[in-house]
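Is this the right way to post structure tokens for a design question? Let me know if I should format differently. Anyway, here goes:
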């Protein structure tokens, strides 16, 4: 580039503000990668047919009658990372969404036909959230 770009003032305020924002994003990404304050889940190849993510909210331990809060109801994390795994056991995509946003999305499916039993021995209760809804969250909020 031979001409100076007036929107990228190397000695001025814009440069330092953009540098600060870039560093903040780098630190946030490093925090994600360090699994700090993030709940990591994966959907194995079945998601390719179902197009859903099973978001657990209750769990019943073996030999117990009562359900306990779990998954989205119990997490202390701020972020939820969903890895989509193909039938060759390879991760092909990861969506990251604020836990509060996923809770809001999931609530509308409680007590509907998307509120199902699942997990190990069908001891979990959860909602089937369309993965597309998670993917499009930034555009639909």
């Amino acid at each position: 580039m031979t001409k100076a770009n007036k929107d990228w003032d190397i000695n001025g305020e814009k440069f330092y503000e953009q540098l600060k924002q870039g560093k903040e994003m780098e630190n946030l990404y490093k925090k994600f990668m360090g699994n700090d304050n993030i709940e990591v889940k994966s959907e194995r190849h079945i998601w390719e047919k179902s197009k859903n993510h099973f978001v657990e909210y209750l769990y019943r331990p073996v030999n117990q009658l009562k359900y306990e809060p779990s998954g989205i109801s119990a997490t202390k994390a701020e972020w939820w990372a969903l890895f989509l795994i193909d039938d060759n056991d390879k991760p092909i995509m990861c969506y990251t969404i604020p836990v509060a946003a996923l809770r809001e999305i999931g609530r509308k499916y409680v007590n509907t036909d998307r509120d199902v039993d699942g997990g190990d021995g069908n001891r979990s209760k959860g909602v089937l959230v369309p993965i597309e809804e998670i993917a499009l969250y930034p555009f639909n909020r």
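Format looks fine. Someone answered above. Worth noting: Residues 37-140 form one domain. The mean pLDDT is 86.
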